[in-house]
Amino acid sequence: MSNTRRHFLGSAAGLAALGAVGPSLLGASAPAQAAMGKGPDALNERTDGTYTTVELAKPAWTLGLVQSRVHSFDAKEWKAGTRRNLAHMLELIDKAHYHAKPDLLQFHEFPLTGWRKWTRDEILKFAITIPGEETEAIAAKARQYGTWIVFGAYATDPDWPGHVLSITTIMNDKGEIVDKHWKARNLKGAFPGFELFTTTTYDVLDRYVEMYGRDAVVPVTRTPLGNICTSSTQREPELFRAMAFKGAEVFLRTASGGFSDMDIAACAMYNGVYSSIVNNSISPDNGPYFDDPGSGGTALYDPSGKIVAEAQSKEETLVLGRVPIAELRARKRQPVVHMDLFRDVYDTYQNAYPPNLWSEYLPTSLEDAARYIRGKSRWK
């Protein structure tokens, strides 16, 4: 797939499909909240315990969680590798609807590529555009089955040349792209000898706000299925608390190679929301990795932190759970937090690594990213 074709899809077709994003594309939904064009700087957050919603399509719906393999490839074989993975993803959508009728089908973080120690130039060859060839194939399945589909992918954007993005796409049952959620942040200083170089919101925070508005930094997508948030971020409960302040009702979370079930359960309980976690399955023939790269555990948790449904093995499987969204909404308010007790503590806190580092330089590899951030920590 040529860069020219990708640029055309991202700019020309993308503008045609996304330029009028708002009620016309979302049906009953409010305007998109994430990286879909310039949005408001004023936060869509109320101060009376309530939050913004749109009318629900049904009082309860079925969430399908696809625990599937990751199948990475040598960068020289990216065309064959991405074709194979896309075909498998489409096959899994068919299988899910053979067994059930999910209203929303959620995949893990990288079903189209898996992961490997690729360089930036290598990923830029196969990262998808949104919309693009791959999303069109998935959209056809959404229309065929009348199902919302949520999935993550490495992506490029003509507005961000040279950047490798990790984006979760929310697609409605008409195959329309409702929202695109960037990964909020990557941990820095956590890995031996390498750093993740995908561009997250935190890595280009000032420019992100300039382009999409401050409200899009913590996106809440208001849909006829409820107020949806997505994230591949682990162990940062403050992020999910912020989502709940803005009216999140369902967290759709993903993992790559494992996660903490305590983190998922606690965030669901503390914020009074339904929360999924979709992890990869056992993954044979996956390059340099063992067949079990931290597999399994896919589940849905209820607002008390209890499991509604979970995978019974580490193999590829479909987990189904009901989300009684009308019942939840009837009683739900923002989380009760006595912020005046500790607001100054949060205001004084300084993160180890400052934002906007990827606005200054784009590392070429995992090792180059580690070299670049060395000495940039503000902590002793």
Which secondary-structure class do the elements indicate?
alpha/beta
* Arrangement of strands in the largest sheet: 5-4-3-2-1-12
Treating each run of at least 4 consecutive H or I residues as one helix, how many helices? Answer: 12
Topology pattern, helix = H, strand = E: HHEHEHHEEEHEEHEHEEEEHHHH
Question: How large is the radius of gyration?
Answer: 20 Å
Poorly predicted sequence stretches spanning 5 or more consecutive residues: 1-30
**Count of extended strands:** 12
As a percent range, the share of strand residues is 15-25%
Q: Helix content range of the residues, please?
A: 25-40%
Major sheet description:
6 strands, mixed
Globally, the shape reads globular
Q: Can you give the mean pLDDT?
A: 92
Termini, distance in Å?
46 Å
List the helices and strands and how they pair.
Layout: H1 3-18, H2 23-26, E1 61-67, H3 78-99, E2 104-106, H4 120-126, H5 133-145, E3 148-155, E4 165-171, E5 177-182, H6 205-212, E6 221-223, E7 226-231, H7 237-245, E8 250-254, H8 261-271, E9 274-278, E10 299-301, E11 307-310, E12 317-323, H9 325-331, H10 343-348, H11 357-360, H12 366-373
Parallel strand pairs: 1-2, 2-3, 7-8, 8-9
Antiparallel strand pairs: 1-12, 3-4, 4-5, 6-7, 9-10, 10-11
Helix pairs in contact: 3-5, 7-8
